[in-house]
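This follows on from our talk about sequence and fold. Can you supply me with one protein entry, sequence and fold together? Could you add the entry underneath, on a fresh line?
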Amino acid sequence: MSTPGNGSVLERVRGLVREVAKFGAVGGLGVLVNLGVFNLIRSTTDLQVVRASVIATIVAIATNYLGFRYFAYRDRAQSGRTRELALFAAFSAIGLVIENGVLYAATYGFGWDSSVASNVFKFIGIGAATVFRFWSYRTWVFKALPVAVPVAAAAFEQSEPMPDPAPLPRPEPGPEPMPDPLPDPVPSPIPAPANT
């Protein structure tokens, strides 16, 4: 049922659902910011549709970074902030091209440039770019921290017992030691001359 280091399938699905929900909350706010800024620029300036859309997308990307870093992916690795920002900017730029490419094709390719058509195709572009962003952000930008695997005592009990260590080799007998040499004989004392 459960594989070491990965958790059960149900736990992984629940984790993915939580991640999608958080990503969706931040992304939903980003969509509101994106469409709000887009329509504000369109109604107050004479900028072309795609230029207004690019500005709105950039504002939404900045908002989304804060939401992703400090809400959706706050539990992810935070080392290498410069690398993280560079990757986020690169993948966001690709998402910007996808999003605004859809709007560009509708506006300049098909001539659908009314206010309603622009918002519909802007929204479709956001949806297409969101799929790419979700995959790239979770895979490359906000990487998951490695999961600590608890060591179960049962794993040790079920494992094969360790074999007894090999006996140490006995030292080979060496040559017999030589007996101590006999001490030099001590000369007997010279007898004293007898008195006659």
